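Lecture 7 notes: from sequence to structure.

We start with a single chain of 265 residues. Read the sequence below before looking at the structure.
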Amino acid sequence: MAGTLAVSTDGGVLHITLDRPATRNAMSLRMVDELRDVLARAEAAGDVRAIVLRGAGGHFCAGADLQDMAQARQRELAGDPDAIAAVNARFGALCGAFARTGLATIAVLEGAVMGGGLGLACVVDVALAGQGAQLRLPETSLGVVPAQIAAFLVERVGASQARRLAVTGGRLDAAQALAIGLVHEVHEDGAALDAALATTLAQTLRCAPGAIAATKALMARALHTPAADLVDDAAQLFAKAARGPEGIEGMTAFLQKRSPSWAPQ
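Now the structure, written as tokens:
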């Protein structure tokens, strides 16, 4: 149990719950730092294969904790001209860390999914939403910029939809978020959403962890590299995987009509 997070593990899955229900899980700097620390520990542990993010009390995350911003303004008034930028950059580093991780990441989105919460929803591999989820990009309506979220939002939904959300103050229900690809599935809140998470985890755990990490890294390169320029590197990556222990085990298991060693038995 961390200060702002409830953390548990189950069969190679790390469950991280944003645990500030009185604030609808507003993201404080302490939460940002604890999320980065938990992620780094999971990556180093070697036995974590997937991470599930969700929020306590029926909400995912209502955005940044305004107390941190107020304190940053006070520090600027006291002579630190970069205090607000430093706070913003710490959240951006968190999003980047989750975007780059080789572990499979899944978010369960319920209730308020705002600002920084929307940013986290954009960087996970799979976003499952409850029907009652309300997704917001409120920054421009507050006179500020979704500075650390913008790039990840463009990656998730494309420039056209991201610009539409920016100029309208971004208000989406779960069905609208599904229609533009911001979330991947929508289910009734409660048992149906939990069942969808269980199905997604079962599918994920049947995939080889090393292959997942290598594929995610290749797809990240593909965002900024023409496909033709990746042909040779991708071929070498495939050959390395095919010669490696996962590739040999996967093909052997297929031929023997059994589950591979990494899949739950």
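The mean pLDDT is 95. Keep this in mind for problem set 3.
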